Each structure stands twice: as structure tokens, then as C-alpha cells.
Amino acid sequence: MSAHCCEHDTPRPETIAHLARYRRILWIALLLNAAMFVLELGAGYRAGSVSLLADAIDFAGDALNYGVSLAVLSAALVWRARAALVKAASMMGFGLFVLGRAGWSVFTGVLPDATTMGVIGLCALAVNLGVAWMLYAFREGDANMRSVWLCSRNDAIGNLAVMAAALGVLGTGTAWPDLAVAAVMASLALHGGWQVWRHARSELDQDGHGHGHVH
After folding, report:
1. Pick from 67, 87, 110, 122: most CB atoms within 10 A?
2. Rg (CA), the chain
3. Where along the sequence do coiled-coil regions lie (predicted)?
């Protein structure tokens, strides 16, 4: 393997903002996430799976996040950081919602359809791995770009967990594996959202200090 195959130089944020390639990737990611939201929402309700419903809501949030990223792509750093704060709040809000939904499902006792969970989880994994691979070169950009990368990475991990939950439901005949995975996905969203929030706040603080020294 060539040494060049292992080199993943991250373009500077100022350069990325004007890269047609990055904008095109965001559009592709937005459309794929919107399509998966519709697919998983229907499948999650039919299968009675909290983890699939959680993943569907996550896809919807990601589609919105990609739209926000496109809107502020060429904006000043302060606006990109503010957009990242909004996205961080949505990630953490998603996590709290899933925890609440999982807690409610404990009392309903609905057994999810393991086959549907596995098949849809595999489709979702393929989409998220593809998006994460396309965004890999931009993972160390500003807070807004970092949030896009973190969302895709965490989503792929969540899809693997959904597939594992499908096997667990099939093997145990209970809904507990599905509920456990939903809780894990909520934790990933909360952790990722907090990371993005801290990074964005740091950029806003630096921008404020920079303007404070201008005379």
C-alpha cells in the first residue's frame, strides 16, 4: 500500500468553506439522512422498536444539522460556532427524548420484531458509514465541521448497536436488548452534544477575546 493512502490532510476551515466537494458531500448526506428518517420511522413503529425509532429521530436531526451546516458554510466563524451550539442542543435533546421513550416502553411490554430491526439497522449502517467516510477528511475543522463528523461517527456506532439488539431480542425473547441499545444511543448523543458544545463555546470565547483586543 502506498504511503499516500494513509495520508489524510485536513484542509483549513477557511479553505473548506469554499470547497465545492464539501458542500456536495453535505447535500448528499442531507438527502440520505432524510430518506433514512422516513424509512426507519415507519419500520420502527411497525416493529415496535424503541432503538429504531430513536435512530429515525436521529436521522431527522442529522438532516436538519446538515441543512444548518450548508446555510452557514461560508459565514463568519462566530456564526458557524453559534450554529454548532444549536446542533449540540439538538443532539442532547435527542438523547433526553430517547431516555424518556425507553423508560416509557418499560411499562408497555411490547416485543420488537428482531428481523425488521436487523435489516433496517444494516441499511442505516451502510448509509452512515458512507457519510462518515466522505466526511473523514474534514473531521478536524471548526466546531460546526466537527459536529457533522461526530454525528456520522456516532450514528454508525449506534447502527451496530441496533443490529446487536436485534440478535438480543431474537435470542432472549424480551425487549430489554432493544431498550438497552436505545439508552446507549441516548448516551452517545448526550456525550457528542456536550463535546460539540464545549468546542463551540471555546471558539466563541476566542472570537470575543480577539475582538476585545482590537483598538
Report:
1. 87
2. 19
3. none
